[in-house]
């Protein structure tokens, strides 16, 4: 009961903080000049759509496809694996990493190659290594897309080359990117501006420079993937993180994809406010200690907790504290004891471990016996009175 009361009180405090939060809302009118046929900007943790334009129409994704190739490769493959490049991979049309038939290369290097310079040959090498063929790998891609919630997406290859059965939507690409950012390696690769990787038996290295100019153009830019074919037009999934808020913007078939993406991200950041709930070392809860030299111990946050707040969404947030009612000594300073979870519309969007603020040694056997006897004597006296 005590634990439930504590959780409820934290929820009330959170709601009061949010109700008193001041918003500065930007108008969607400023996006009226977007040239993209489809566009969307979302907050990654909550999935909140901040703006959309024809975001559910099926379109060709071009090389933005490679986000899903990366996700599947990270979940099914091992970064240190050595991949032997096939003739089929080398002969893949379109943008290339310049792979040689029979070349042996680490899977991790292939992933950088396909994301930074959009190597179609690299995606085929990855697909064949993990699934045996591009067709089987594409099935894994589509399955994963559906699991993520990208219901209007179908992949038939790992590169994004045009095919009538290879399509997605701006909304689905935003969901796929948001899912990707949950994986630290995904976030690292798509945020890499330059990378040197081996080039077979050559004495020099491949120097990869990321084609995504948003990494340099936009303050906080940290991903994600460009794309272009004649059928798809100019496509870009871009991302930026400021004050703990991760936004993702998608433009498909855009005349000016850089300008469109900057406008979307600017609009997103003007319509969302980061709010700090807990700072590192904040005392969050006190719990009882059994058999310890101290009866209670304070639990502190092991990091900052920030949430992205949009006007009208205040009542969708809840803060839950997941800790035991009591713990047993000994306890060392810094030991993880529980967790604070921030929920948005029933979905966990942030969390932080609760750790012991100090150490509590275990009482000696005789101290424990003495305390037990003392408590028993005290209880008897009070009962007799």
Detailed description of the structure:
- The chain is an alpha+beta fold.
- The protein has eleven helices and 17 strands.
- The chain has helices spanning 2-19, 66-76, 87-90, 107-116, 120-131, 134-148, 170-180, 184-190, 214-217, 257-270, 365-384, and strands spanning 38-43, 49-53, 82-84, 104-106, 194-198, 205-209, 221-229, 233-242, 245-254, 273-278, 283-290, 296-301, 305-309, 317-322, 326-328, 336-344, 347-356.
- The strands form five sheets. A six-stranded mixed beta sheet has the order 14-16-17-12-11-15. The protein has a five-stranded antiparallel beta sheet with strand order 2-1-9-8-7, sandwiched between helices.
- Helix 2 packs parallel to helix 5.
- The longest helix is centred in the last third of the chain and has 20 residues, at 365-384.
- It is elongated.
Briefly characterize the structure.
It is built from eleven helices and 17 strands. The protein has 385 residues and is of the alpha+beta class. It is elongated, with a radius of gyration of 26 Å.
